[in-house]
Amino acid sequence: GHAPMPASAWQQPDPAGSPVKESQFRCSSNALPYAPPRHAALGADGARKPGAESGIVTGNAATDASARGWLVGHFTPRKSGRHADEVEVKWASRPAGEKRDAWSPATAARTLTILVAGGAFRVEVGEESVVLREPGDYVLFGPAQAHRWHALGAATMLTVRWPSGLGRS
What we know:
Helices cover 2% and strands 31% of the residues. The protein has 169 residues and is an all-beta fold. A five-stranded antiparallel β-sheet has the order 3-4-11-6-9. A four-stranded antiparallel β-sheet has the order 5-10-7-8, with no helix packed on it. The chain has a two-stranded antiparallel sheet with strand order 1-2.
């Protein structure tokens, strides 16, 4: 698709300003497609320039996450721009059949896990078992609730946990 045009590029056909349907709007002939300015700290490929102090970090969750999937949290390097004491974010692509049999310890954090893509994913929280089946399905639990999981099909998950617990990984 095209980038949105600024509002000034659109004209109303009725000069009196009476309400018109969106389909009645037309683009002025001299308007160019709008492209927002690139931040000076970003390179042409959209990646953050080394040493840039803009506070903007770009990347790919699948490649930037740690071996265990954590992308943001207290355990990421401070200079990465992804270090945070308030929240943890995990991106995980799990093959069908992968599971965590051991119960994770109950912590003071809340956890939100969302199925982003792929097959079914089961999360057991205490005595309950929840199966996420469709992209967008989620489970929210905690604090003080242990959990474990099982990828019933190949699945990509996004997990957000808060607060980021010092001493936890």
